[in-house]
């Protein structure tokens, strides 16, 4: 298990080499969902993965931006341990968690919910100075239809920008703010608001710390403005980029079953949860892995 960020930094170049070499996987089966984003992984028990399987899962994650697993049976401790293989765990600034397990976030909605988690396009907690590397959602209960999650590849979104737009965005920094998202949002779970929520400035285009590829890093959920340009210009550019990032060409859509797991890379993917299943119940837990400061 990784003890600290130094070990993570040492591991990065090896994973990058494996991604670039694109050799066949030896310990897992990886079936891409679309040519652009998402892959389903089989042949691994996430409750007890081997070191080589973990390395191959990380390589698939960096390659496909989000990976999916079916029929997994993990205890809460095993779910937390699976996350810790990829780095220290992140504590959500607002969301509810399982009793006594602050790193095991509750993701649920039912007939009494005023809202569901993650209904708009976002990258998790991008308002943190060091936004999460990735999130591992384990759904235990879900409706027979509905409650899908959509994912979008932000490398592809960056690549599809015009060269002039890429040049314009190069070096720009945007503010990501948690205030609007989090204040009062979890009152139905009995969560008390904090005096303040995270706010951070990040490059509009970030370089993935492992693959070295450029990704668009603004999202409708958290990004409030681009620094150093007039407000109306910032609003117009962000509106364009949010629309661009939501192009279905960059997306895949995952249909959950009980005991499915999705592991997404917040550095290269955005996601959006569909709340189309009211009054039915969907329940699961998310373990979130800490990330580094976007560059
Ligand atoms: C989230 O944004 O973590 C929620 C995703 C989902 O419920 O599908």
Care to describe what's here?
The protein is of the alpha+beta class. The chain has one domain (2-274): Clavaminate synthase-like (Double-stranded beta-helix, 4-Layer Sandwich), CATH 3.60.130. The protein has 7 helices and 16 strands. It has helices spanning 5-21, 51-64, 76-84, 154-159, 163-169, 179-182, 231-245, and strands at 29-32, 39-42, 66-69, 97-98, 101-109, 134-141, 149-153, 173-177, 199-203, 205-207, 214-216, 223-226, 251-254, 260-265, 269-273, 282-289. The strands form 4 sheets. It has an 8-stranded mixed β-sheet with strand order 1-2-3-14-6-16-5-4, with helices on one face. Strand 1 (29-32) and strand 2 (39-42) form a beta hairpin. The protein is globular and about 50 Å long. Bound molecules: succinic acid. Succinic acid binds next to strand 6 and strand 15.
What letter string, H or E per element, gives the SSE order? HEEHEHEEEEHHEHEEEEHEEEE
Total of domains: 1
Describe the global form: globular
Percentage beta strand = 25-35%
CATH class membership: Alpha Beta
Q: Enumerate the spans where pLDDT stays under 50 for 5 or more consecutive residues.
A: 1-5
Largest sheet: 8 strands, mixed
């Amino acid at each position: 298990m990784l003890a600290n960020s130094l070990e993570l930094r040492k591991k990065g170049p090896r994973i990058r080499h494996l991604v670039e070499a694109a050799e066949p996987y030896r310990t897992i089966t990886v079936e891409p969902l679309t040519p652009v984003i998402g892959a389903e992984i089989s042949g691994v028990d996430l409750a007890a993965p081997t070191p080589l399987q973990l390395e191959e899962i990380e390589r698939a994650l960096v390659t496909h931006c989000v990976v999916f697993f079916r029929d997994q049976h993990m205890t809460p401790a095993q779910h937390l341990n699976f996350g810790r293989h990829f780095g220290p765990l992140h504590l959500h600034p607002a969301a509810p968690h399982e009793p006594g397990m602050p790193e095991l976030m509750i993701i649920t909605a039912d007939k009494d919910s005023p809202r569901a988690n993650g209904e708009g396009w976002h990258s998790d907690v991008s308002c943190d100075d060091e936004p999460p590397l990735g999130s591992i959602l384990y759904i235990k209960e879900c409706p027979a239809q509905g409650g899908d999650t959509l994912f979008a590849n932000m490398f592809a979104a960056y690549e599809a920008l015009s060269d002039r737009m890429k040049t314009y965005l190069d070096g720009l920094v945007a503010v990501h703010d948690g205030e609007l998202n989090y204040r009062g949002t979890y009152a139905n779970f009995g969560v008390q608001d904090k005096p303040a929520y995270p706010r951070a400035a990040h490059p509009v285009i970030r370089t993935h710390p492992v693959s070295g590829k450029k990704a668009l890093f603004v999202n409708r959920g958290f990004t409030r403005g681009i620094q150093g340009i007039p407000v109306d210009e910032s609003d117009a550019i962000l509106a364009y980029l949010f629309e661009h990032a939501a192009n279905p060409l960059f997306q895949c859509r995952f249909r959950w079953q009980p005991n499915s797991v999705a592991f997404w890379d917040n550095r290269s993917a955005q996601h959006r949860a569909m709340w189309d299943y009211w009054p039915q119940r969907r329940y699961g837990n998310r373990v979130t892995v800490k990330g580094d400061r976007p560059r």
